[in-house]
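User: Hi! Is it possible to get a structure for several chains at once, not just one? Here's what I have:
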Amino acid sequence: MPSEAFGQARVINVVDLTKRFGSKVAVDHLEFAVRPGVVTGFLGPNGSGKSTTMRCMLDLDRPDTGTTSFDGQRYRDLPHPLNVVGALLDAGYVHPGRSGRNHLRWLAASNGITRRRVDEVLELVGLTSVAGARLRSYSLGMRQRLGLAGVLLGDPGTVILDEPANGLDPEGIRWIRDVLVHLAGQGRTVLVSSHQLSEMALIAQDLVVIGQGQLIEQSTVTSFIERFADRWVRLQSPAATQLIPALTAAGATVTQLGDTTLEARGVECATVGELAAAQGLVLHELSPQTGSLEDAFLKATAESQEYRSGAIAGPT
Amino acid sequence: MINLLRAEWIKLRTVTMNWVLAGIAVAFPLLIVLLNAFFRGDEADFTSRQLLDVITGSSFIPSLLIGAIAITVVTSEFAFGTIRPTFAATPRRLRVVAAKGVVVVVFGLLLQGFVVVVGTFVGSAIASGQGAHIDLGEVDTAVPALIGTVLLAGLMALMGLGLGMLIRSTPAAIAVFILWPLLAEALVGGLLSLIFKGSQPADWLPFRVGFRLPQIDLYSDGPGRLVSGLYFGVVGLAVAALGAWTVNRRDA
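Assistant: Yes, the chains can be modeled jointly so their relative placement is included. Here is the combined structure:
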């Protein structure tokens, strides 16, 4: 794992960021901030502007308006950026004829980082045994690990990753999850974009959700789910069907799942309990239910989906 | 800047194709020189001037290959996307461009310098061994022509780098780099000669001027060796500066 004496963690500030590609507005007056010490998930549908925003943060794309900064300092003004911000935008950004070690060596040399540190990060990501092999022989998962090694080279206080779990096997996904949680636990600023919402639900505390280049929501994961996901009450009772009229009369929308199980929307647990007690019905389960991060995300971004799937027709 | 020079040197030396091209750039002219020295050294008319002609004449191919290396140094970064980690590691892009320029120009000068020195000394020794009378001091323009041969490689590297930055695509940039001197300047030169009923404007076409650097005798009308070097250098710098400006301005 990276050392405890990493570079200063910085608040990432995105202010009024706009980026156009011809007539297409990729990022539209976007504003948000990312705080240190937690993993912040950067979510949005395909084409929502996540990668463009990240490229603007690293000064790779030139924004039309607005700024991005790290504790107020522009990326281009950082004398040794790798010691401040570690970024992995695409693990495929490597020369296939170069070895993994040499890829890291030129990256390290550009910021005055020692060769010993190159060997350390190779060890850290588990690539020491293949460090001399050409990158064309690396799998996508190995390239992701190499990319993460590049991120950790300068032991930065701020980490920006675009889809870091792409191409990783389950062990690799778990490994990267542990690394990100560890980095944030050390107090670093960690911004991660991902489409794997179940993974994001496990590691992120904060979320920045965008759609069509605009901010949809910035909040904690918990508040995001509370705000956007469905909530309902699940109950099990041997006399479940007898409770349906009372629930309906109380304004609930009831779905019956088998003879003994109901789901009631639009009503609180306490109300359901009181209605059951009033009728002298036995309850085996009475629990509040909340939708997943995926449910909340789909609801929040429903209006911003640029590419929608058609219904899959069954065999005729 | 030292860090960037190290980084760019690591990039250049860790790609096998660069060494393959460099190997051809060294082997091809040396083979021509050594074979000429060996097989023609016993001919009565094989003089110091003929040996120098072979050395400087065969420098055209390595100069093109050095330019091709310079092109791929930058276009491969765009092709494989490594330009993004490069600029993320060094957001001040002009410094990266400058480091690339220094590395490819010095690499080209050293490579061509090696070819010229080895070709001259070994070629002279072999030809002398075959009975030829070789004394390079007899040819007044020997040293300027040999220096010009080396300088041409450096300037071709600069031109290649500039075209690579402007065009970004390896095949397209190499095609332009080869066709510009071999085809475009020949056509434009012919056209200018027809229009102006003379050859003066055509004498100032960039590569035509640049290729005067290694000539033993500057036969045709046109600028002298020093002016030729400065002129071609200015054109190369202008192309490189334009390339650097676009790289700095556009999204990576």
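The longest helix of chain B spans residues 93-129. Chain B touches chain A through 28 residues (CB under 8 Å).

User: Great, thank you!
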